[in-house]
Amino acid sequence: MADTIPLGRTDRFLLKLESADTPAHTASLSTFKLPAGAHPGFIRDLVQELSEQAVTAPPFNYVLAQKGDTAWTVLPPEDIDLDYHVRHSALPWPGGERELGSLISRLHARPLDFNRPLWELNVIEGLENGRFATYLKMHHALADGAAVIGILTDSLSTNSDEPPKAPWARSFATTLREERESIQPPEQPAAQSLLQALGKVATSVRTRPASGFVGPFVAPKSVFNTKITGARRYATQQIELQRLKAIGAREKVSVNDAFLAILSSALRRYLQEIDELPDRPLVAAVPAATLRETQDGLGNSVTVIYASLATNLEDPVERMHVISESMRQGKQFISELNQQQIAILNGLVLLPAAFLNTIGGGTPSRPIVNVTISNVQGPRHTLWFGQAECEALYPCSMIVQAQALNITARGYRDHINLGIVGARDSLPSIQRLAVYTLEALEEIEQRLGL
Amino acid sequence: MADTIPLGRTDRFLLKLESADTPAHTASLSTFKLPAGAHPGFIRDLVQELSEQAVTAPPFNYVLAQKGDTAWTVLPPEDIDLDYHVRHSALPWPGGERELGSLISRLHARPLDFNRPLWELNVIEGLENGRFATYLKMHHALADGAAVIGILTDSLSTNSDEPPKAPWARSFATTLREERESIQPPEQPAAQSLLQALGKVATSVRTRPASGFVGPFVAPKSVFNTKITGARRYATQQIELQRLKAIGAREKVSVNDAFLAILSSALRRYLQEIDELPDRPLVAAVPAATLRETQDGLGNSVTVIYASLATNLEDPVERMHVISESMRQGKQFISELNQQQIAILNGLVLLPAAFLNTIGGGTPSRPIVNVTISNVQGPRHTLWFGQAECEALYPCSMIVQAQALNITARGYRDHINLGIVGARDSLPSIQRLAVYTLEALEEIEQRLGL
């Protein structure tokens, strides 16, 4: 009899989110340098080499009997059509950021095939300056965005002497569930207790001092909180960590506060240009790992902090300080909540999507949050894929109904790598956000004389 | 108020066939020679040039409000996101038939976005020997396979001096509906009269002499008549028309008979190799235009001829004569039917798909037909896409539940171009069919001393 693995509540919910308009997968885009003197068939040989490594590592061998299933079946390697999952692609000339973004947008829009294990790896040749890329896509019910990058980095090596190793053939180090389980969707059967707990959170929010603190439900209406369709736009950007550190040190704010400040500038300019900047400040959901007491003692826990992006203010330095204070108060607020309240606060991010995808109805008149902005640390040392040096690791997150934009960043070596995912029909030219982010960094450096 | 166009019965039926496992679009793949001295940005400029030609020609500007809609809305050009529909793709090195087939398989498996007009054009660079390709995909409810090729050839020019013209910007010459309307699905509301008419056809079939004549419902069970999933395999082949003519002239059979004979050899060998050759001969549905009396006088009409492929016989020449006789009797049989009976005979090809997709249930225990093989004449003169010479036009047809294989051929200049579409999970390595077709041609030439 085949091995089966029951689906958790979050996984079942993520399968319910799956639709043609909201395919519920996340991905990781990585770029690599071709080794010196690589022959034209280098990528073809690499794809071949990967296709010969049998699928032995979970969850690459998990399959659903049907979409509504409540358990994964574990497939033996010979039942997995690896030539289907491992795909060789190419960029048209000149193979720049524009061509790469365009291909990733299309790949990210395409739903996974539910007749098979829910993942695909594209190996993409033709990047300018002697480079190639990989795009690893997995269903969110198998692994969250952080886990996809974790799986990928685990399969890379810290030295260039090892042969390239397929993520599905490796020994299993990454925890797939830890972060995801902490961001749980609202539990539908227990609507009563959900409402009670929501009430507690709402009361806590109302009784906070007004100075800079924001909670859920105070976000203004925005172009980001609309119904979305299936097509995507994708853009990337790299930011030198040292430049954010210099700003933080000068102004006594964290690197993440500086990061949020330049994104705030970019979002503000983008919204101004399409004449959609709300009067009230945008609110971002910022997932953050915090040290806190758990049942088992002290542990790492992921919470969502609701932060004002202060987009009502013009001055970027003033804005950064308001953001920083808002983050501080958000952390303070969370430290006073019990585990149940935190779980509910975290789950609120998915509430509109839950209603729109599984219950139906229009977009909520009151956004719970405007945009999700996530920034996770990553490996500081150089990683290798065989003899190919990894240049960058970009996240490529899921967006859901009523949340048309997701900005996720991941550290690698001395850079922060941004992956910006937007709904094509709601958000024109989101590539501009990537450009404006760097311009905002320069602007704030100039203001501070750095 | 927006213009609307009601959907015909066939179009509504084709929308019902749409599912993740059976996306109901057809396509045309064309290959072109790059003009001498084309610079590396030639394709990029071509895509740009096409993207600047507004969508004015129906049905490129038709959209459904929702999938179950019964009318198209006609969109003004400014409401169509042409950068979405026109896509620039590339083949990995070395850009051979294998890489092209692999990309087309993936493109053909991907459903169209029902939020937009149901078509996409991919312009594909990187074919070996200084060539590029286009892949035009349209939903079957907008245009059938023959119409897609017709639309494409209409947009090409007979001389190389004209600038490249987008199919959606041209004056409208091709009839989109003529052929399709003649192959109508069984009408569901009038089940009673359908059954009566079916009875008539069945009686006609039973009362025919047994010598070579086959009708529907006599096909053996085969690996082609299974449930299919969404992934596809695609292969192409070119056959010199002159070689088929020589065989036909020598043996007093038609070019199409010779064509069916070599496909029969290829199918026979393929099935033998996977140990799936039925004892009884395979039956092919062969759409054919015939001259016949219509209500308005004599006219062109498309019918489906049911032909034995004589795959029970080993000798290719003997097999060709049985096929030829079966085709002759099939034509004779159809000439004796009235219009209603012909419509029903034609519609039978879609009956299992209709039941499986719209009514549900398993695959029929008795296949109505094993495989569809279509061969349509095409332009004899050279066509140009701007300064790029068109080398070949391949069809890329739809497959449906219980019909996992479709072989469609189109004439262009002095060649017949085959497009073979199969369900990936049902049919391994269908590229072999393309190879075996040419080997079968050589075999029969040797037998005849040609």
From TrEMBL, chains A, B:
Occurrences of domain O-acyltransferase WSD1-like N-terminal (ranges): 8-258
Pathway: Glycerolipid metabolism; triacylglycerol biosynthesis; Lipid metabolism
A GO molecular function held by the record: diacylglycerol O-acyltransferase activity
Sequence ranges assigned to domain O-acyltransferase WSD1 C-terminal in this UniProt record: 299-445
Keywords carried by this UniProt record: Acyltransferase, Glycerol metabolism, Lipid biosynthesis, Lipid metabolism, Transferase
Gene3D superfamilies assigned: Chloramphenicol acetyltransferase-like domain, Nonribosomal peptide synthetase, condensation domain
Lipid biosynthesis as UniProt keyword: yes
Catalyzed reactions: an acyl-CoA + a 1,2-diacyl-sn-glycerol = a triacyl-sn-glycerol + CoA
InterPro entries in UniProt: Acyl_transf_WS/DGAT, CAT-like_dom_sf, O-acyltransferase_WSD1-like, O-acyltransferase_WSD1_C, O-acyltransferase_WSD1_N
Keyword presence, Transferase: yes
EC number(s) per entry: 2.3.1.20
Entry's Gene Ontology BP terms: biological process involved in interaction with host; glycerol metabolic process; response to hypoxia; response to nitric oxide; triglyceride biosynthetic process
Pfam family, one: WS_DGAT_C
One cellular-component annotation, GO: plasma membrane
Protein origin, superkingdom: Bacteria
Family in the record: Belongs to the long-chain O-acyltransferase family.
Protein name per the record: diacylglycerol O-acyltransferase
Taxonomic lineage: Bacteria, Pseudomonadati, Pseudomonadota, Gammaproteobacteria, Cellvibrionales
